[in-house]
Amino acid sequence: MITNVEENTLQKQEVFYAKGTFPKVMVLAEKVRNKKQTQITGLEPFKIDLSFFELYVKKRCSASVSVHELETTKKGAFYVIKIQGN
After folding, report:
1. Most Cβ neighbours (<10 Å): which of 3, 10, 17, 48?
2. Of the candidates 38, 67, 42, which has an alpha carbon nearest to the alpha carbon of residue 52?
3. Is residue 17 part of a domain?
4. Three-state SS for 47?
5. Given a cut of 60, is residue 22 above it in pLDDT?
6. Which residues constitute the domain of residue 37?
7. Measuring CA to CA, which residue among 69, 71, 72, 73 is closest to residue 82?
8. When comparing pLDDT for 36 and 2, which is higher?
9. By the 8 A CB rule, do 56 and 40 touch?
10. Is the pLDDT of residue 27 over 90?
11. Is there a contact between 41 and 25 (Cβ–Cβ < 8 Å)?
């Protein structure tokens, strides 16, 4: 478990370029049962480690964070990240 998340602990990864349009990230903010909930989808093309991202957002926003798999296709799995807190 990562206890101290700072910008200098981020690992450098290989950068690749692709032709075409820039991939879109969808952020949906809504109020559910008197709590604010944010759903983020579309991070797969950016090759972000979702477990590390979950811990980073949990520490940074001090909120409850969960990662759920939406569907699996030939292109890979698609995930939704839910952030809940006031």
Report:
1. 48
2. 67
3. no
4. coil
5. yes
6. 25-85
7. 69
8. 36
9. no
10. yes
11. yes
Q: Is residue 5 part of a domain?
A: no
Mean pLDDT over 11-20 rounds to: 70
Asked if the structure places residue 9 within a domain, the reply is no
Write phi, then psi, for 3 (nearest 5 degrees): -100, -35
34 part of a folded domain: yes
How many domains is the chain partitioned into structurally?
1
Q: Position 49: which residue type?
A: D
Digit-coded pLDDT (tens) for 49-81: 888 889 998 998 888 999 998 887 777 778 999
Which stretch of DSSP H or E encloses residue 53?
helix 50-61
78 exposed, middle or buried (CB, 10 Å; 0-12, 13-18, 19+)? middle
